[in-house]
Design goal:
The complex is a heterodimer. Chain A is 26% helix and 30% strand. In chain A, helix 1 packs across helix 5. Classes of the chains: A alpha/beta, B alpha/beta. At the A-B interface, helix 1, helix 2, strand 7 and helix 6 of A face helix 7 and helix 12 of B.
């Protein structure tokens, strides 16, 4: 598995937004997933951490990662990201790939209004807004997603958020909710897409047990730099087993308030 | 029945209350005894659960009627060992102790102490009541216990799905501290920027413990550290030394927030290089300087010992027998517990968050040679549902040392995948969900005289220990 393929000479440039500020749910696993799956195929990755007060030209990256944080961290990020916003939007317009999760996802919308406290301004990359609710959506979830490259695929993960997100006409959802709550618990969809930018509430982290999504991000990142490419297949039996276990859990908890309330001994 | 006009005391309101209490306690005791008899459990939470059903005030009545010093220990990590050490110090000082010593730290487990250690009328003889309490249970338990001493060991990110966000837990703890009367003492870890700030408006007296030596530690906190920004102004802390996760000598360059003066401070420390202990420390206390040897390994056990000494001091016990008490401390069940399994050795470690997992990996890495591992995780209510935190565990640091790893529990696939992405070759990883089969398979890979390292979550640790107990390798945990 970890024997390294011949060097393809290709490289993906990754910008990792706020790696220490926004890292609450071990979402660095997403970066690990991208790095290893590139390495196993002989594709190089260059990762640049981007901290508060830094304003790089975001169009130089092929892939930008932006993960979750608690409300206090989100406030810091919201203030800082205003200085990065126009470059981030420009990158999205030029087809840079984005993976944003939870608070990072929320901050790519127009704004986040917490249940208590002042509104936090976002980047406006996704046509959407988020309002804090009084309860948290905490459960295993499953989505049905469809992409040109992959066909219909199932995405699994764990959601843990009190924000309710509402998409505007310019954002598409990432997928249809099969189990769990999704963006707002009402309209049956989860996440957002705009060009190559993706946003989602799924933790877990999301990429390791959804290798098809990792590969889609890798492929589109490479295409951003090199034009059409085809990825070498990998042995995904370990990942697929984890995917199947997570899907089973999600379907068990289907339609329930939270995973905790739905555990079998309580029933 | 109550129309009987005899002088039966049980018809008066207070008599009724007493009768109800006595009934609750007897039923609880019976439940505990039959649980042990039929080997379905150690009677650690069942007696409390039954008794509370009958009399919801059972804990309050028994504890309130007792003259004992009441000590409550809470925090993310280190509760059980700190409680064991506190009990040992109290014991060495000639005090009799009742405690929930088996990690049963939810409300039922705490109530079991009242049931198990009182007589049928709810009277307790003990000099000290010692409770380790889950941080989420604190707001429920403290009003019932009315403690004299509250110890907060640290707050790490722990089971986000159970407790919500770290800050919510912190707020609840802070509110609890503010509710304490001025006769109480609060013992806080001064090296934890968030914990050190607790109880600023409390009426109770605050005392601080911690490390202030540069003998050990690292220049910056590890990746999984939680509180690395100032809790007042959000600027990044600068660290003179980081000891463990975000615990350290921190200072905010913007607003100047820094750790308080420590009442109990470790001013010198040496850790054993073999990862097994003992550690040697010099401790400054208001009652003088002490040179101590702590038999349990690692920085975390230095914290546990100092917190225990602080708790004993706050409760007014003499400290002259501290070294004797600490020398007799064995590891709590599942805390790098050394177990002889025939001609093989097992180290059993209970791990539940990145901080405790990384600590154990670091200790194991200090042991010589290549390692056989058994990892077991389960998603039950007490273990949590969301295992994302496995990706904050630094498996990468141990990879070159791993000979083979068995993954078990119903998080088997997740664990195996985590190891694969740490680049442990998949042919070294086996997936065996069943606990007993996993234990046997893991031991089979160990050569005679060799060692197996087990790292497991709460439920799997209990299950594994039960198997080992059946085989006569360890005692019942309630007999400890």
């Amino acid at each position: 598995m970890s024997e390294n393929k011949t060097d393809t000479g290709m490289v993906i440039k990754i910008g990792h937004l706020y790696p220490t500020l926004m890292s609450v749910a071990a979402d660095r696993g997403n970066l690990f997933s991208i790095e290893r799956r590139c390495k196993w195929r002989g594709i190089a990755t260059e990762v640049e951490p981007i901290f508060v007060k830094q304003t790089p030209d975001f169009t130089k990256y092929d892939l930008i990662l932006f993960h979750g944080g608690a409300d206090r961290e989100m406030e810091i990020a919201s203030r800082d990201i205003q200085h990065k916003a126009s470059s981030l939007r420009e990158a999205a317009e030029s087809n840079t790939v984005f993976l944003s999760v939870c608070a990072g996802y929320q901050l790519l919308g127009h704004y986040y209004k917490p249940f208590n406290g002042p509104e936090l301004k976002g980047v406006g990359l996704f046509d959407m807004y988020t309002e804090g609710g009084s309860t948290r959506f905490m459960t295993h979830m499953a989505l049905e997603c469809k992409f040109e490259e992959t066909g219909t695929k199932i995405l699994v993960g764990y959601e843990n958020h009190s924000g309710r997100t509402y998409l505007g006409p310019k954002a598409q959802p990432l997928g249809k909710v099969l189990a769990g709550w999704g963006n707002n618990g009402k309209d049956g969809v989860e996440g957002a897409r705009y060009k190559n930018a993706f946003g989602t509430y799924t933790h877990g982290p999301v990429l390791p047990k959804n290798p098809w999504l990792t590969d889609l991000l890798i492929q589109r990142s490479l295409e951003h730099r090199y034009g059409k490419v085809k990825l070498l297949p990998l042995d995904d039996s370990t990942e697929n087993a984890a995917h199947a276990a997570a899907l089973k859990l999600a379907m068990e908890f289907k339609g329930t308030m939270s995973a905790i309330e739905a555990t079998s001994w309580k029933r | 029945m109550q129309t009987d006009n005899s002088n039966n005391d049980s018809t008066t309101p207070s008599g009724l209350r007493k009768a109800r209490l006595a009934f609750a306690i007897s039923a609880g005791k019976l439940a505990g005894a039959s649980g042990r008899l039929f080997h379905i459990g150690g009677g650690t939470s069942l007696p409390g659960m039954i008794a509370r059903r009958i009399d919801p005030n059972v804990l309050k009545s028994v504890v309130g009627g007792s003259k004992a010093k009441k000590i409550v220990i809470t925090g993310s990590n280190g509760k059980t060992t700190t409680a064991r050490m506190t009990a040992a110090i109290a014991d060495a000082a000639g005090r009799s102790v009742s405690q929930n010593r088996t990690g049963s730290n939810l409300l039922q487990g705490i109530t079991s102490v009242a049931v198990n250690f009182s007589d049928f009328f709810g009277r307790m003889e003990s000099d000290v009541l010692l409770f380790e309490i889950d941080e989420a249970t604190i707001p429920l338990a403290v009003p019932e216990i009315q403690p004299d001493v509250v110890v907060i060991t640290n707050i790490f990110r722990d089971q986000l799905d159970r407790y919500g966000e770290l800050y919510a837990v912190a707020r609840a703890l802070d509110e609890m501290l503010e509710s304490l009367p001025e006769t109480a003492t609060i013992l806080l870890n001064g090296n934890d920027p968030q914990v050190a700030n607790f109880g600023r408006n409390a009426k109770a007296k605050r005392i601080f413990f911690g490390l202030e030596t540069k003998d050990i530690g690292t220049p910056v906190p590890e990746q999984s550290a939680d509180i690395i920004r100032c809790i007042h102004c959000n600027s990044d802390f600068t660290y003179e030394v980081a000891y463990l996760s975000h615990l350290g000598l921190y200072r905010c360059p913007e607003c100047g927030y820094t750790l308080p003066d420590l009442d109990l401070a470790v001013t010198g420390a040496t850790l054993a290089e073999n990862g097994e202990g003992p550690s040697k420390i010099t401790l400054r206390t208001p009652e003088g300087e002490m040179n101590l040897e702590i038999p349990l390994p690692g920085i975390h056990n230095i914290y546990n010992a100092v917190a225990a000494i602080g708790a004993a001091m706050a409760a007014g016990f003499p400290l002259d027998s501290v070294q004797t008490a600490l020398s007799n401390i064995r590891t709590a069940f599942g805390r790098m517990e050394k177990i002889q399994a025939g001609d093989k050795t097992i180290y059993l470690s209970f791990v539940k968050n990145p901080t405790s997992f990384n600590l154990m990996l670091r200790l194991i890495a200090q042991h010589p040679g290549k390692k056989h591992l058994l990892l077991a995780m389960s998603h039950t209510v007490v273990d949590g549902q969301d295992f994302a935190w496995l990706w904050d565990v630094e498996f990468e640091d141990l990879v070159s040392d791993i000979l083979d790893a068995v993954c078990s529990g119903n998080k088997t696939e997740e664990l195996a995948m985590r190891l694969k992405y740490a680049e442990v070759s998949t042919d070294k990883i086996s997936l065996i969900e069943d606990r007993e089969a996993a234990l046997d398979a893991a031991l089979k890979q160990v050569e005679p005289g060799g060692t197996l390292y087990i790292m497991s979550g709460y439920t799997p640790t209990q299950e594994l220990r039960r198997i080992m107990q059946k085989r006569g390798w360890v005692k019942h945990f309630w007999e400890e």
